[in-house]
């Protein structure tokens, strides 16, 4: 959708370079997912250009207008650091949602990997035979739901800091890593001891799904715990 | 006025700025500056993340529009945001009446 308000007075190439340099510095100092960083930078691009256009309208020359705009918007590292809370909340919510969404898929493929007499699948019986995995679910599911809840409207009403949601997401992701490792270990043991207890090709599919989720959950746990930090550069 | 002096009232101010119609982030900063006679000149690092937080809370929603070489993200109130703004106004009226009653009452204890 075209917005007529987006066609302001033209800034000089030198003025545009001042704005572009400032935006590059903010972008470099931001952490988090690439797509989210790009959206933040795009939003700030429009904002700082609007500020420059406002200054230009007062009669200053374009270069001074651009310098005034970036001064008004502030130090790039400070601006980037101010987004830390929202980036944390975004990561926590995305991780929690992905973990909750992937749970049924992982469950279904592993149930499909089992041949009769456990077909039709009886999840309660299966979980009872693997109490460790039941313990993992008892931790992962509530923690993921807490991460989602704290980053939504209820979290806002309770004035929860995004760090709480990040801790819940870290716990959920870590539990999923343990859970998938348990499933893969169980598969390896069964494949050696009683290979006829497995259904092919469902079993390799289940292994691929769990292995993939293990890697993604590990990365999510690192990011949410700050191990793969949302980078905020030291003040220049 | 420094941003930390607005603690607890920032959400209400941002929602009020959007009451008349959609605004982009810098537009919200300008609206607060103009509407307060220059008293509230809030930094980028306060306003933009707060707008994202309010969107995550469901009180405002954003939409992108395109122009030559740039994209604009504009925010507007949701029905929940309209309700939240009304609640903020009610809360402010009670708070400001109470503070004014105490601050305007003169030194305490009142002299005999």
From TrEMBL, chain A:
Source species: Pseudonocardia oceani
Keyword line: Membrane, Transmembrane, Transmembrane helix
Keyword Transmembrane: yes
Regions that span the bilayer: 98-119, 131-150, 171-192, 198-216
InterPro entries for this protein: Perm_prefix_1
Keyword Lipid biosynthesis: no
Name the UniProt record assigns to this protein: DUF1700 domain-containing protein
Matches recorded under NCBIfam families: perm_prefix_1
TrEMBL record, chain B:
Domain of life per record: Bacteria
Pfam families: PadR
Boundaries of every Transcription regulator PadR N-terminal domain copy: 14-86
Name this protein carries in UniProt: Helix-turn-helix transcriptional regulator
């Amino acid at each position: 959708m075209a917005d007529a308000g987006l066609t302001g007075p033209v800034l000089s190439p030198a003025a545009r370079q001042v704005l572009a340099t400032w935006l590059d510095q903010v972008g470099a100092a931001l952490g988090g997912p690439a797509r989210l960083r790009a959206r933040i930078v795009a939003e700030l691009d429009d904002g700082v250009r609007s500020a420059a256009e406002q200054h230009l309208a007062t009669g200053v020359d374009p270069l001074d207008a651009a310098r005034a705009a970036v001064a008004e918007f502030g130090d790039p590292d400070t601006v980037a650091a101010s987004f830390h809370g929202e980036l944390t909340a975004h990561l926590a919510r995305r991780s929690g949602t992905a973990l909750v969404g992937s749970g049924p898929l992982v469950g279904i493929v592993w149930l499909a990997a089992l041949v009769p007499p456990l077909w039709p699948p009886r999840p309660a019986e299966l979980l009872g035979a693997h109490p460790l995995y039941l313990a993992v679910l008892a931790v992962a599911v509530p923690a993921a739901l807490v991460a989602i809840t704290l980053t939504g409207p209820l979290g806002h009403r309770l004035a929860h800091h995004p760090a709480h949601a990040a801790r819940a997401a870290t716990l959920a992701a870590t539990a999923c890593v343990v859970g998938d490792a348990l499933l893969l270990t169980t598969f390896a043991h069964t494949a050696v001891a009683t290979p006829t207890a497995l259904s092919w090709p469902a079993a390799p599919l289940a292994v691929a799904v769990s292995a993939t989720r293990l890697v993604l959950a590990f990365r999510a746990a690192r990011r949410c715990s700050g191990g793969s930090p949302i980078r905020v550069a030291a003040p220049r | 006025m420094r941003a930390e002096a607005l603690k607890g009232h920032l959400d209400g101010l941002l929602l009020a700025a959007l009451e008349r119609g959609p605004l982009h982030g810098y537009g919200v900063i300008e609206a607060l500056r103009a509407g307060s006679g220059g008293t509230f000149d809030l930094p980028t690092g306060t306003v933009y993340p707060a707008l994202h937080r309010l969107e995550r809370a469901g009180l405002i929603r954003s939409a992108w529009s395109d122009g030559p070489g740039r994209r604009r993200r504009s925010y507007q109130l949701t029905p929940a945001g309209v309700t939240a703004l009304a609640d903020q106004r009610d809360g402010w009226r009670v708070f400001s009446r109470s503070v004014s009653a105490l601050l305007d009452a003169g030194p305490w204890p009142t002299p005999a």
